[in-house]
Amino acid sequence: MDTKVLFPTVVGVSQADAATLAAIQAEVLAQEARIKSLLAPTWGDQVYSSFEAEKHLFVAAGLHRLRAFVEAGILDFVARTREMADLAFVDDYSQSWINVTTRHGYQERHNHEREAVGLPISGAFYLRTNGRDGDLSVMPVDMHTKLFEPEVIAPAPGRLVLFRSEVFHRVGANTTDSDRISFSFNYLLRPRQERQRSV
């Protein structure tokens, strides 16, 4: 996995290799009927998502390769950007869903903060995109907002983008005639010993 960490707001960007992307695409295609049955307009009429029907799509649809790729990416991102060691996922916090963004679909500035104790990480994985169907803009945090422009990340098939859940971001409008398909997610990490005590 090739991870690029961007500053001032810490954003991780990695790219699946061709074999990994092909395996994930095949896995999603095998579950296409199940996933389509969960889609509904969620964030405006032009964005269809499974979020309302199923907030744990990686598990519910058996997307094991995608889940493994995302979780490995999160652990790599955290290891590169934090001093904390031996972190583990809090399973009952995790969420995952698919977004199908059609022509004129976009998402306003928002974040995924859920006031969790620990290290919350959110992000997106692009399954299908033509690269011109809506950039992801990640906003600088705190005092950086006066000094830096948003970090603009173009979508690409197999691209994984990660950031802390409280970081604001937006998605530009899809002005093309092809649908962009992406997966979004929220995870929470805590020190392994602390997580064991809370179980």
Short description:
The protein has 199 residues and is of the alpha+beta class. It is built from 5 helices and 13 strands. It has one domain: Sandwich (Jelly Rolls), CATH 2.60.120.
Please describe the structure with a list of short key phrases separated by commas or semicolons.
199 residues, alpha+beta, Jelly Rolls, 9-stranded antiparallel β-sheet, 5 helices, globular
Radius of gyration: 16 Å
The number of E-state strands comes to 13
Largest sheet: 9 strands, antiparallel
pLDDT < 50 runs, ≥5 residues = none
Characterization of the model:
The protein is α+β, with helices and mostly antiparallel strands and 199 residues long. The chain has a single domain, classed as Jelly Rolls (Sandwich), CATH 2.60.120.620. The chain has 5 helices and 13 strands. The protein has helices at 18-30, 32-36, 57-60, 64-81, 192-198; strands at 2-6, 11-15, 40-41, 47-49, 87-89, 95-101, 107-110, 119-128, 136-138, 151-153, 159-164, 169-171, 180-191. Strands 1, 2, 3, 4, 5, 6, 8, 11 and 13 form a 9-stranded antiparallel sheet that branches. Helix 1 packs across helix 4 (64-81). The longest helix has 18 residues, at 64-81. The protein is globular and about 40 Å long. The mean pLDDT is 91.
Question: What does the secondary structure layout of this molecule look like, with pairings?
Answer:
Blueprint: E1 2-6, E2 11-15, H1 18-30, H2 32-36, E3 40-41, E4 47-49, H3 57-60, H4 64-81, E5 87-89, E6 95-101, E7 107-110, E8 119-128, E9 136-138, E10 151-153, E11 159-164, E12 169-171, E13 180-191, H5 192-198
Antiparallel strand pairs: 1-2, 2-11, 3-4, 4-6, 5-13, 6-13, 7-12, 8-11, 8-13, 9-10, 9-12
